[in-house]
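Pipeline run #58 for the internal structure catalog. This entry was flagged by the ingest filter as a single-chain record with no existing model, so it goes straight to prediction. Upstream metadata was stripped on purpose; only the residue string is passed forward. Reviewer on rotation: M.T. Logging verbosity set to normal.
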Amino acid sequence: MTTTEDRMMQIFLPDTYKKTRELSSVKTRFVYYTTAETAACILRDRQIWMRNTAIMNDYMEVEYGFECVNAAYKGDPGKRFNAELDACFPGLSVEARDHFNDLLPTIRTDTYITAVSEHMPSEDEHGRLSMWRAYGGKTGVALVLNGDVFFSESNVLNVFSIPVTYLRDFTSNFENVAENMKREAEFIKSSDRGLLKHMVFIMLWFSVLCTKHPGFHEEKEWRVIASPKLYPSTYATPAVEVIRGMPQTVLKLGLQNHPEQGLVGLELPQLLERIIIGPCESPQVLYTAFHRLLVEANVPDSERKIIMSDIPLRHS
């Protein structure tokens, strides 16, 4: 990220910028709660499937984000935000608004995500009970991931890792960005008009996709986002798969490093920190299966990287 892009991120996405820097500095890990079947497929095939929000529960969450942003944009906070834009480049507020509205149908139909959570050290042995209940099913598995690749500045994948913000409305966010623009007006005026328009789009895009109701705050969610029509990727390829009886297009993201383009840490031996086997009837059977999968994936110390949670969660 160039100095100009870095400074623009601080202006237009201050909370995202701050949280990303903070978590990167302390080597935060992430965790993917899923079923044993899905976890086994990830390890066996060395790939993550990113699913379209239009067919997931996340679809309503994206609509929630849009409503939060739209309500604030049409109110006084949005008016102040647009006034600061026009003070830097006359007429840019309308231009940026129309650009976002033109791409909104694409955002709604061509957004693919994978959701992970921040992993706390206190959860190393047991995982998080609420996440087992929500995502584990009767044979839940949590893949604990080293966080370095999530903070990589390489854009080779054209996939974005963004923390979720838990809000009831977007008022304070627009107000903060407007204040930032006012303070940094001279810098913004000296930059490229097209770059500023792009930053406004990125701000609105990320805000719509990564705003959730405060009731979900304990999930500590991050979203890995791809939109192949907006940002094509050679390494996230579409394919039709049948999931729970529903044929659908997914994006398959290969877990491979691209060191020549500055991306490392995505291959399983570096990416996978541990596996937590959730509450289930046959944990030893899962242990044996996942140990074999780790050996086949050349993950070192595989026998020590599998933990069996002893949370006494019963499944009906």
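catalog note: The mean pLDDT is 93.
catalog note: Residues 240 and 294 are 27 Å apart (CA to CA).
status: ready for reviewer M.T.
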